[in-house]
Amino acid sequence: MTARVLLIEDDNRLAGMVQTYLGEAGFAVVRAADGRTGIARHRDDRFDLVLLDLMLPDIDGLEVCRTIRSRDDTPILMLTARGDAMDRVVGLEMGADDYLPKPFEPRELLARLRAILRRGRGGERSEVLRFGRLEIDVDARQARLDDRPVELTGYQFALLLELARHAGRVLSREAIMDLVRHDRLEAFDRSIDVH
């Protein structure tokens, strides 16, 4: 299964290098160039790990870390050019799981990322629903058709998951709306009809 990584980094060259390297190692990387975008992407999707730059143009990386940590326990690996001991201590105390000073070797980043993910799994198995050629990994929030990933928004995944959990039953439009509890749809009440 492909681990999903949210990379919040404003240096496009470094972000591109990390995305390419991790992609070649089998990870799916979603990029955000600033803190606000990173927080929004984390809120709207599910990730196995967050790579977070400490110095971002809009919001300090520590604030992004605090916001993410207040929502869930997604592992956070901080990347920063500020490498003194006090910065590392503050980052770890704010909720980061690990800290890697820049510049870094891509192999070390990959090794740390894999170690964090190994610790986080703890032997747990994901709930996987299968329907013919379709496979839905509930914990990873991923769907695969013919063993190929299907790109879905957070809302589309929630809708697919609830329909799968209620397979064989006829559901009214209102029942589907209640199941996915997607409050942002209230203003656009008909958007469920197009899915």
Text of the CATH class of the largest domain = Alpha Beta
Q: Whole-Å distance between the termini? A: 26 Å
Q: How many strand segments? A: 9
User: Into which percentage range does the β-strand content fall?
Assistant: 15-25%
Detailed description of the structure:
With 195 residues, the chain is an alpha/beta fold. It is 41% helix and 20% strand. The strands form 2 sheets. A 5-stranded parallel sheet has the order 2-1-3-4-5, with helices on both faces. Strands 6-7-8-9 form a 4-stranded antiparallel sheet, with helices on one face. The protein starts with a strand and ends in a 15-residue tail after the last helix.
Map the helices and strands:
Elements: E1 4-8, H1 12-24, E2 28-32, H2 35-44, E3 49-53, H3 61-71, E4 76-80, H4 85-93, E5 98-101, H5 106-121, E6 128-131, E7 134-137, E8 142-145, E9 148-150, H6 154-165, H7 173-180
Parallel strand pairs: 1-2, 1-3, 3-4, 4-5
Antiparallel strand pairs: 6-7, 7-8, 8-9
Helix pairs in contact: 2-3
For this entry, give a set of tags.
Arc Repressor Mutant, subunit A; five-stranded parallel sheet; 2 domains; four-stranded antiparallel sheet; 195 residues; elongated; alpha/beta; 20% strand; Rossmann fold; single chain
Short structural description:
By secondary structure, the chain is α/β, with parallel strands linked by helices. The chain has helices spanning 12-24, 35-44, 61-71, 85-93, 106-121, 154-165, 173-180, and strands spanning 4-8, 28-32, 49-53, 76-80, 98-101, 128-131, 134-137, 142-145, 148-150.
